[in-house]
Amino acid sequence: MFRNVSFYFVLLVVCVGLMMGGCKKKAPEQEFVPESAAPTNTPIAAPAQEEPTMEELRLIKLEEARSVLSSESVYYDYDKAVLTAEGRSILAEKAAYMIKNPDITVTIEGHCDERGSNEYNLALGERRAAAAKKYLMDFGVQGSLIETVTYGEERPVCRESKESCWKLNRRAAFVVND
Amino acid sequence: MTFTKRKQMNRLVTGFFLAWTAVSVCRSADVYFDITASQAKKIDIALPLFNSELSEQPELVREIHSIFRQDFEFSGRFNVIDISPFFPTSEKELVNPDFGQYYLVGVQSLLTGYINQGPDGDYRISIRLFDVRMGQQIVGIRYTTPLSGVRSVIHKFADEVQYRLTGERGINDTRIAFTSRRTGNAEVYTVDPDGSNLTQITRNGSINLSPAWSVENAELFITSYQQKYPDLYVIDLADSTSMPLLQGGMHITPAPNPDGIHLALTISYEGDPEISLYNLETKKVRRLTFSSGVDTNPVFAPNGRELVFVSDRTGSPQLYIMDIDGANIRRLTSVGNYNTAPDWSPRGDWIAYHSRRDGVFNIWMIRPNGSDEHPLTSEAGHNEDPSFGRNGRHIAFTSTRDGSKGLYVMDLSGRNIRRIVHAMGGCENPAWSR
Fold it and tell me: From the CA of B253, how many Å to the nearest CA of chain A?
């Protein structure tokens, strides 16, 4: 009996070891290897040749995700939570990236312009974020990778009271989670 | 203004008031337009308060006098008659006035007071209300307060007078909670309805919205983003501590039921905002609406059995009423394509809200049965977010009439507008304590 337990323990340790080893091995295989290899031609390249740590790789990956997902928001018509044709095409690109990179999770923020009651706008912002999330899920992105939060009119990107500004504030913004 | 100049001024003003009173005896009803006209007969009240020759504190007495005058005039229930310089009072007369004199000039109610400073620095203020015709004291109260509490004491007695003479609770000893971005992010503040005692309640650097008073006015329910999401918190005003009640997702627009046990609010179900009921004792949540689209901003009727709320189920935000169990939903507003921010009068007879017409927001009122819809504000910037005072005669609201969005109070005729807070980086979500 005792022997059995220790056998399973050893097996467990071996398995965990394999899994961790697998991780370590897999990470450097990604596209960063050519990059770090490239500077070999330059004379003072020695420090750059150090293997990036797990943490560095993770940060690089996050930066890439942000450049794809966060750079462009999805915009809405006044008092509407319905996606426009342009909004749908922007979301399609984001969906493609998220399907290829299921380790990335995002928070979609729903925002409104300043007009109207800020309490109603909180609910409207929730609807806008939810509309964007649903569209991504229709493409096949797992719902568990997407959180939503409404900010109503509380976090405008543009602060003047005119349509050119308002249209920038009526948006679903993508934040890549750390 | 020097003291003597003020004194001259006071006599001038007093003279004017006497003359004006004589005229107003026959035409007092049409001096102000009042929406509740049937009960609008005003009571003539005299303030020969605190004879300044007797008192050791002439400036303080003057200040008290002006607080009383402001409170009574703003209540909409009193004509203030200033007769002090013509009826110098002795100390004895403060307790036992010569009612005949006051009766002759048409005074119905009379206030007297006596003030002195105790050895500890606190003020002892005794105030009496008399019925002139009956020759009787109606109520007398003695307060002991530091100088900083004098204003609040006068507000309390003004409300007491209004309650004794009209049966209505006055609005002077109340608070208005609101949010402001003065510090760069939205924090909750409170202020007296006369603009004094501005107090910052939250200081968490997050976003804080939608304050709502608990039934006993001892707590504020708010929405706060302290943990990333718009969560429901309760703030104990005695020590300003806050406690989360519902977290994660979306828990916004809290509205306490007069029963003190239930709270209506908006909760997101898979991205769909729905009206829900939260039991503060059992902590259980019950969903009330099931329509796709926005359902938000519930407010209870004073009987606690119905709710008015906002829904865009027909394509644009409109007001609806339903029973507390979610049944019997009927549409209230039909004109305009943006009607939100409802508040139900504590009297039950009106629902105030704001409506966007031709791109401009104004405060409107409608009967709970959908009749008598009319605007209270017009041609003065955007006017939004109405909140009734506790006797249903006044409304607090925000307005851009003076530039940035400030906090104002008006009566139900849309007149007697008083600016309470200005230039604080935009005021939102006023909520008047009840």
Answer: 7
Q: Is residue A138 part of a domain?
A: yes
Residue of chain A minimizing CA distance to B427: A118
Does B118 contact A at CB distance below 8 Å?
Answer: no
Record: contact B250-A118, CB cut-off 8 A: no
B216-228 pLDDT, tens per residue? 999 999 999 999 9
Asked if the structure places residue A13 within a domain, the reply is no
Which CATH number does the domain housing residue A92 bear?
3.30.1330.60
Interface predicted TM-score of the whole assembly (ipTM), two decimals: 0.84
CA dihedral over B33, B34, B38, B40, signed as positive or negative: negative
- Using a CB–CB cutoff of 8 Å, tell me whether B362 touches chain A: no
Please tell me the distance from the alpha carbon of residue B87 to that of residue B99, in angstroms, as a whole number: 11
* Beta strand spans in chain A (E): 74-75, 106-111, 146-152, 171-176
Q: Which residue of A has its CA nearest to B225?
A: A151
* Cα dihedral A79, A85, A90, A92 in deg (nearest 10): 120
Chain A positions touching B273 (Cβ under 8 A) are 123, 126-127
Q: Are strands B306-311 and B262-269 parallel, antiparallel or unpaired?
A: unpaired
Decide if A130 and B228 are in contact by the 8 Å CB cutoff. Answer: no
φ, ψ for residue A132, nearest 5 deg: -65, -40
Question: Which of B252, B271, B338 has its CB closest to that of A133?
Answer: B271
Indicate whether A61 belongs to any domain.
no
Distance from CA of A40 to the nearest CA of B (A): 45
Percent of chain B with pLDDT over 70: 87
- Tell me, yes or no, whether A148 lies in a domain: yes
**Strand partners for B126:** B114, B142
Residue spans of the domains in chain B: they are 3-166, 176-432
Judge residue B371's burial from the number of C-beta atoms within 10 Å of its C-beta, 0-12 exposed, 13-18 middle, 19 or more buried. exposed
- Angle (CA) B21-B409-B11 rounded to 5° is 30
| Residue-wise pLDDT tens digits, B68-121 | 999 999 999 999 987 754 555 677 778 888 888 888 888 888 888 888 888 898
pLDDT tens per residue, range B302-342: 999 999 999 999 999 999 999 999 999 999 999 999 999 99
B374 touches A: beta carbon within 8 Å: no
Class at the top of the CATH hierarchy for domain B3-166: alpha beta
Note whether A148 contacts B: Cβ–Cβ < 8 A: yes
Number of structural domains chain A divides into: 1
CB contact under 8 A, A122 and B252: yes
CATH class as words, domain B176-432: mainly beta
> Which of 96-135 (A) contact B at CB < 8 A?
115-120, 122-124, 126-127, 129-131, 133-134
Show the domain range for A143. 74-176
Contact B295 A118 (CB under 8 A): no
Q: What is the DSSP string of B377-423?
A: --SSS-EEEEEE-TTSSEEEEEE-TTSS-EEEEEETTS-S-EEEE-S
* Cα–Cα distance for residue pair B268/B273, rounded to 1 Å: 4
